[in-house]
């Protein structure tokens, strides 16, 4: 079941996000940089703030009262036309189940309802699984950017999805 996150989800979401971030990046990032990033971005307080942010939406996927995936989208960017997908995280046991597509559908719907015409994201250049998922979903690479994990500069691919195609009969 995918639903909008509630403030009461913040602590569980914090633990879930930190665990998945560690699992994904521990082999490519120094422990001190990893922990610095996690401390700054995945505290329970930060998750509560993201859930309460009226310009954003956080969706959680639940199974047996446990978070098994989540997505965070900032529904309107400064340019007024684009939404930014900050995260889609899916527990390893649920990868390949269609859960990420379900979360992306929720994000696309939210962004479209708020008037966004494009959905943008960045993804670590060495995260081949995520890159393949986003390409299958219709995202196109449009550039690259530096993403700081603690003091470690990493290269992310910038990708964009034309929401008018998605909202007019296309599928994610």
Automatic annotation (TrEMBL):
Note one Pfam family from the annotation.
Acetyltransf_1
Identify the domain of life. Answer: Bacteria
Q: State the CDD domains in the record.
A: NAT_SF
Q: Does this UniProt record's set of keywords contain Acyltransferase?
A: yes
- The record places domain N-acetyltransferase at 1-164
Q: Which residues form the signal peptide?
A: none
| Presence of the UniProt keyword Cell inner membrane in the record | no
- Keywords assigned by UniProt, alphabetized: Acyltransferase, Transferase
PANTHER family of this UniProt entry?
AMINOALKYLPHOSPHONATE N-ACETYLTRANSFERASE-RELATED-RELATED (PTHR43877)
Q: What is this protein called?
A: GNAT family N-acetyltransferase
């Amino acid at each position: 079941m995918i639903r909008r996150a509630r403030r009461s989800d913040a602590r569980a979401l914090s633990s879930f996000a930190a665990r998945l971030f560690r699992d994904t990046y521990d082999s490519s990032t120094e422990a001190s940089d990893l922990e610095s990033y996690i401390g700054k971005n995945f505290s329970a307080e930060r998750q509560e703030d993201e859930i309460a942010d009226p310009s954003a939406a956080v969706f959680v996927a639940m199974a047996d009262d446990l978070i098994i995936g989540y997505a965070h989208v900032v529904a309107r960017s400064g340019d007024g036309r684009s939404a930014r997908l900050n995260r889609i995280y899916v527990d390893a046991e649920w990868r390949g189940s269609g859960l990420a597509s379900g979360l992306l559908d929720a994000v696309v719907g939210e962004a479209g309802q708020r008037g966004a015409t494009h959905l943008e994201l960045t993804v670590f250049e060495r995260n081949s699984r995520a890159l393949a998922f986003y390409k299958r979903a219709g995202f196109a690479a449009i550039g690259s950017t530096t993403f700081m994990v603690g003091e470690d500069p990493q290269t992310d691919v910038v990708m964009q999805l034309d929401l008018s195609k998605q909202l007019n009969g296309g599928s994610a």
